[in-house]
Amino acid sequence: MEANLMIRMLFKFAFVFMIVLQVGVASRDGFFFSSEERDNIKYWADQLGDELWQLGQSVTKATEMKARYKKLNVQVREKDGEALLMEIVHNVQRMLDRKRDAVRCIVNAAEDAAEFFNGTDALHNYTFYSAKNSYVVGDVTDGKDDDAYKPMELDPNKNFYSIPVNLNYSSVHVPTNVFDRDGPVLDAIKWSESLDDVFVQNYFSDPGLSFQYFGSSIGLMRSYPAMKWKQEADLFDCRNKFWYTEAATCSKDVVILIDNSGSMTGYRNTIAKLTVSNILDTLNNNDFVAVYNYSGRAEEVVSCFKDRLVQATLENVSTLKAALEDVMPEGYANLTNAFTKAFKVLEKYRELRGCSNSSAGSQCNQAIMLVTDGVTGNHTEVFNTWNREANSTHIPVRVFTFLIGREVTKVREIQWMACLNRGYYVHIHSMNEVREQVFKYIPVIARPLVLQGTMHPVTWTPAYADTADPTLAAWLWDVMDTGRRKKQSEFAGSKDRYLSHGRKDYIYIKDSNQVVGNKNVKLQEYRIIVSVAIPAFNRMLNIDVTNETLLADLLGVAATDIPIKDIEKLTYKYKSGVNGYAFIVTNNGYILLHPDLRPVFDGVLKENYNSVDLTEVEFLDDSNGPRMLNPEIEELRKAMVNYSEGKMLKKRMKFHYDNIRRVAVEQKNFYFAPLKGTPFTLGLSLPDKYGMYYIKAGDEVQKSRHKKIPIIKYLQGGSWRIHPDWTYCKYHHQTHAFELPEDEMRHFLEKMRSPDWLWAEQYEDTEDEDEEVMLMMDNGTEAVNCNRRLKAEDEYYCDRELVQLFTFDAKVTDPFFREDELTYFEQEFVNLYNVSLKFVSTQSGLTRWLRFQERTELDEGDSDFGDLHKKSIEEPYYRSAVLQHGNNPDSYVFSVPFDAGLRDNAVVMASHAIFPRDGGMEAAASVVGLQFQHSALFSRFMSITSKTMCPSCRDCASEELDCFVIDDSGYVVLAEDKNLTGRFFGEVEGAIMDSLRTSSAVFKEVPIFDYQAICVDEEIEISNDANFILTPFNQLKLLVHWMYGQLLWLLFESNLSHIWYGIQSSARPIFEESFESYEIDINETDEVIDEDEDAGQRKTEEIFEVPRLCDNKRNLYVLQYENLKKYEYTYDQCSRPHIVQYIPHTNLVFVVIKSTFETCYKMVSSSSEEILYNGTDHPCQKVFLNDLPRRRISGCFSEHPLEHDVKLCGGCHSLRARALLFVVSWCVVYLGCIQYH
């Protein structure tokens, strides 16, 4: 009986427990948050939102400003994407055509001057302007005047980075290993002096022209304007510049075979690797390359480059060089196997490109570079099998042979290989010969181009940084004009709290001359540039003096530089509008211009800065993983690479902004068209909705003139800025000095008051320009106007539409930025939130701000709002506000710095987009906003949440609740712990963030792949000085070793090389060593010293931070407003009970958590994480990009019928050293060896 009663009681208890459990699980949220608590939390959110809305409206007067647009008869027009694209193309095309024509004029003048030059005119007492040796008048630090060279008078010029130059003539640079008093060199200097007339004519007819060059085939370079060479160690040779090598050789497929047999040890192995490295340095983005080491079999030095050619980008070249260091000699050489593999690879690519077709065959240059210390046997069978076509009348692949070492045999066999395969043979005895001997292959490949002698192909180089050019790099820090730019760079280097790395890296690069590890980082401005180059031919092609062979040498190459920012200024960014942009893609699919191109990281130039593919910066909003290409993006890339004109509409794209901290997803429209006469295609991306409308301004300047109201009246006070990178009005010549762009704008606004004011453009249209270009391409003539009208000193140009829009914006915003008294209500808000300023940014680039109260004046050394946020539509607050308008037009976007928790005086920025309406359409006209103290917002938040509506309700200050306010990207704006401000919410409350991104989808997770990322590794180096005692003997030994090394360097690497090898080799180049940015860059060094006093030992541990290229992934988040409205909490076993409430009129979310409940630890991060590809090293994970479509450069010549008459294919290199110098130098070597042993 008792047992039955016990069983019944157990069943009843179990039944009640199940009921309670089900109810608890079904309504756990309701159990923890009563309806009264829910209402109380909603009341807090509503009160905070309403108050913030009133704050914004009262301070910015957004409603009144929107009404003023209507009062001034704002015009909203629909944007025609195709028409805008063609307008931009036309604007950019005119500029590029003018640069190309300037180079053509140099080429024509050079060929004429060389043809009619009488060699007897070059006297031995002839003087010229030397870039290295001429004395600068007035420069007391420049040393004595040398009678052999003309003194130069130089003045800083803003058109040339403020470097001291002379616009009346050019200066000559002669490589160190070329004697500038040698007869042929002096002749070239003399006849090329007549180019000064062309340089001056080019520049004064187009003062936007950058440096102009003529590089002679014997090594001298004449550059305009004249400037003084600042590099102390001169290893520069123009024949190794991008513009020279590419103009001379066009695009090439190159296979390098490096002997790895047992005989290639020690010094030979070192020379061989250096030879391969120097060959790689002569290649560029339009070339394809493979490197094999061979002994018993041929193997790729980089395993993931198997059976393929890869583009010779800086990144791939660096990878090949690094892999060479791991190659160790072994076994016996099987050259037949190596040649066979090389020929097979090249044949595969000839077939892929249609080079076997006779009509296309002339477009393919292919070569094999053999680097070895000798060959055995005869290899005729290999060449007959693989390198003879059309009944042995066609040799598709040139063979160049580089014989390594002093004591070598069977020279005849290796020379024969080159001569019978349209190549060239050189013998490299020592390291100091490598560069000049490698360079000899370039004129051989250029022979067909020279022999045809009619067509002058125009070459456009890959992008490169001007800091990599020794003619400019040393000047760029020293010429920070008027101290202002230098002060700004110092400010950028020390004030990380004001400028992010991304913003600094857009402008500055680390000074390459500063000491490694120096904590006081010195920054200098940099520019990414392209060059346009054209080869010049010697019209005096004749049989040489022995009447045995035809000479076919280039006269030289002419070129000029074009900064990418100059192109960007012509793309009408104010017309593409916020979140719209123009971009340029090369024939290789690489981006030349794009808002997401980030060439610099932490002040260091990336190795892949000029080879970022379009598919690496444009992303559809899809579920693809890393390195998975979307077919639609591939289609866009293919169309642009193929020089097509077209459009792709309504593509749902994702893009990041605010230094890859925020993300947006929206539909975009793409338009694209080719830039004729270049390898570039220009694209335009516009947001599908708001991006298809714009504000149209009338003739506001004429209206102001008619009303006799100076435009400057609408800009009273100094608190305004214009976009620093846009062109409003400028003088062609920099004879008018303006400290700030705003000063220049004031000047022109005053000039516009004159009834004689005329609008002028930078580049005038040329009648029948397209027809002239086509004529040149068809019949090879060089019809070009080399006598354009010169620009007078006071001539200017303006962007008329931009100035009209600027004037309209000034009129609209003027009443709201006067020093008017605030109403009592407005003053209350200003005091309550400690508002420091209000601002407005407009689509014309105008930014205005007004500071409140005297206590908000700037501290010494701080920058004002307009100096930190002067890029208007490109600023994150502007972009966010316009995006927010699509979610809720009656709201403000609130944000705090990401490191706000670490600051004592953090500010909150609030912004709101104004979209005036006209004719049923609306367009983004401006963004208004304010800044106020975060501490004031925190106080108001705690005050509002301290008021409860029910006895059981708890406030945010209680221990039972944790309260957060997060923005629409998931970053903490308010928290009880102020140190959490600015951090990503998932790093604070990971379990709740995980719930918000999964079950409820309040936040959408958007993965962003960064294929331009930098990862930093730490390397530790330990030095042991246990056996080193600085006795006087050891100090003397160090001195002797130093003197020995310096003397060797002097003998083998300095300007005495012409003594060693005579005049025959004096006209050969010294190649500039490539700078590998990240292998030796040391950002931080920590020293740990471990001393044993008894033993007298000391160990030093140094930690180096070594950056490297990598792929990163970052999960970013965007608030889903529709899902937030439907949000219902779903309980899980990990997150604590919480409520999420939208704060009205904002981009903010209120999160309230029951803090007394336990939670499992979970981290949801938005930080960057490196993507690992199953152990694949960078850049092997993207090797497939080499297979994407590319358009081969036109105008290449790979063969010519007369080439068979050119018998020069290399010969034995004879050393004609002067006996005394030879004996002395080897005595030094011998004594040095004794010292070290």
Any chance you could write out the topology, listing elements then pairs?
Elements: H1 2-26, H2 28-32, H3 35-60, H4 62-71, E1 75-78, H5 81-115, E2 155-157, E3 163-165, E4 171-173, H6 183-192, H7 195-205, E5 212-216, E6 221-224, H8 242-249, E7 252-259, H9 266-281, E8 288-294, E9 298-300, E10 310-311, H10 314-324, H11 335-352, H12 358-361, E11 365-372, H13 380-386, E12 397-404, H14 411-419, E13 424-428, H15 434-438, H16 441-445, H17 447-452, E14 459-460, E15 464-465, H18 470-476, H19 484-494, H20 501-507, E16 508-510, E17 523-525, E18 528-537, E19 554-563, H21 564-568, H22 573-576, E20 581-585, E21 591-593, E22 600-601, E23 604-605, E24 619-620, H23 631-641, E25 646-657, E26 662-674, E27 681-687, E28 693-696, H24 700-707, E29 720-721, E30 729-731, H25 741-751, H26 769-779, E31 796-798, H27 800-813, H28 824-832, E32 835-842, E33 847-851, H29 865-868, H30 876-887, E34 893-895, E35 907-914, E36 917-918, E37 921-922, E38 926-933, H31 934-944, E39 961-966, E40 972-975, H32 985-988, H33 990-997, E41 1003-1024, H34 1032-1053, H35 1057-1061, E42 1085-1092, E43 1097-1119, H36 1121-1125, E44 1138-1142, ...
Parallel strand pairs: 7-8, 7-11, 11-12, 12-13
Antiparallel strand pairs: 1-28, 2-3, 4-6, 5-6, 5-19, 8-9, 8-10, 14-18, 15-18, 16-17, 18-19, 20-21, 20-27, 22-23, 24-25, 25-26, 26-27, 29-33, 30-31, 32-33, 32-38, 34-35, 35-38, 36-37, 39-40, 39-45, 41-43, 42-43, 43-46, 44-45
Helix pairs in contact: 5-7, 34-37
